[in-house]
Amino acid sequence: MSYDRRMALPLPGERPSRLLGVLLAAAAVLGLCALGCGTPAHQTRRYAPSIFQAARFEARRPQPARSDRIGGDEGAAFVEKALHDAGFRFGTDGSARALWGYLRSSQRLVSAASARPGDILLFDTRSASPTPKCADHAGIVESVSTDGRITFVEARGGGARRSFVDPTRPTIRRDERGEILNSFLRVKALDDPPGARYFAGEMLCGIARASRSEGGG
Question: Does residue 99 belong to any structural domain of this protein?
């Protein structure tokens, strides 16, 4: 009696074919997976965005005209929200002065020459004293040109905007090519005191670099 060995079951005493063994092994693995005992799938790790990435995200969102907290400042609220989105955990009263206090005590201060994207800029827009008192406004560095001009993002006047500050030429509005070196951070008023400042470079009073490794979250 003849039979096709490719299709028949093994006779008593015969070893099952290699193909049958593979099929049985595959069935066993599938059964374990169905029971939840298989190797778990790799999970995608979610990293906190950088401060500047968080700031760009915040800049695309509609900004309130001012913070809803007493003493709040929209520039400080913008920066604080970006820091929170980047994974920092801290609280303030919503003012730029309180934000400056946190950055000064818990983070690292850097020079203007060392500024880089993601650093926090603090400004004194109201004082007329020769040395600005920090702070009542804040922004986040977007980029730094080779000649030292800093492009930063800020919330002001109810919206997010891109502005400029040049710490090496703080009193100059535009360069010889007509490019803005320093943005106006306040408009001139009839009752301005002598020595009032208007350019971002005149008002820059501090730069901080936030890092979670330095106790920032």
Answer: yes
